[in-house]
Amino acid sequence: MRRLLSGVKPTGPIHLGNYIGALRNWLQFQLDYENFFFVADLHALTVRQDPKVLAERIREIARMFLAVGIDPQKSVIFVQSDVPEHSELTWLLNCVTRMGELERMTQFKDKAREGRERAGVGLFDYPVLMAADVLLYQTDVVPVGEDQKQHMELTRDLAIRFNRDYGETFRVPEPFIPEVGARLMSLSNASKKMSKSDDDPQGCIELLDAPDAITRKFKRAVTDSGTEIRFDPSRPAITNLLVIYQLLTNQTREEIETHFSTRGYAQLKNELAERMIEFLKPVQERFNSITDAELDTVLDEGCARARVVASQTLGEARRRLGVERKAMRSMSQ
Ligand code: TYM
């Protein structure tokens, strides 16, 4: 069975952009692949975190995987730092990665804006850890939002280079980036993507938002000049709202435009809030019903299942590089 893997960083509450860009597609593919879904807590450490808050967020994200419908019978759910193979493979891959490749990463350039001298080495190395995440599981498909495209290209390049220089070791993965919703924008600024680390929480619908917060956020959402409600790339704010509407209702663009041809922005915002609240209600109920013990069982089992695969690939990479002393000795005997 083909393998699928993806992760979410616990740097803030999980939001609609994460759901639409990634988790929604995880669910869609869940039955067709052997799946690995994880909380990318080591990636969160690349920016300063409050340890107590981080520890809670890791559990919150894993709980949200279950709440949206990821089924631990069908998918391996785990926490990245529980599987030490991720860190070890990162080191091995560091040694085949070029500085120039990481210097070109736009996320590093954006995040290190305050100055390269002060940027953490972990932030620079972030994409290599991500490549290790993917390659450890011999992954075929990685469903992600558009912001991860460049990291996925590097992952492919590293796999191809390693295989060429040391022999066939890693499967070369493909990203899956959805056609609609690959880059959901902030509700308060349509030129910025919806993000966990946005300074303005009004721009971001969190999956755990209470109904009144959702209504308020949509009410205050920015719109473009004009009154027409149409999908139009030159009017990014209204198009962003319509994309959310499209994904919540599964209607075609034509149906939506016809529906709103006699209605105004206020109605669009009201309907969006209603649909969103209705969609999130069962997710939040499930989220609240999962006990700590249940969550720990899922994560413990997930870690054990993940390590079976991860340790096999890591062992192979070590052998290829010549740093697997015991296995090498028995091979030469
Ligand atoms: P993270 O935690 O920033 O985001 C999780 C997923 O959500 C997608 N996403 C969005 N999609 C559409 N619109 C948005 N506004 C939006 N914001 C976020 C992201 O593209 C991502 O798919 N580096 C990753 C985590 C990671 C990972 C991996 C993913 C670590 N290792 C290996 C896949 C495979 C990240 O920071 O995602």
Structural notes for this entry:
This protein is mainly α and 333 residues long. The chain is built from 14 helices and 5 strands. The protein is globular and about 80 Å long. The mean pLDDT is 95. Tryptophanyl-5'AMP is lined by residues 5-9, 17-18, 20-22, 40, 43, 130, 133-134, 142, 144-145, 147-148, 182-184, 193-195.
The CATH topology of the largest domain is Rossmann fold
Low-confidence residue ranges: none
Helix content: 55-70%
Bound ligands, each once: tryptophanyl-5'AMP
The CATH class of the largest domain:
Alpha Beta
Q: How much of the sequence is in beta strands?
A: 5-15%
Q: Per CATH, which architecture of the largest domain?
A: 3-Layer(aba) Sandwich
Output the keywords.
7% strand; 14 helices; Rossmann fold; single chain; 333 residues; two-stranded parallel ribbon; binds tryptophanyl-5'AMP; mainly alpha; three-stranded parallel β-sheet; globular; Tyrosyl-Transfer RNA Synthetase
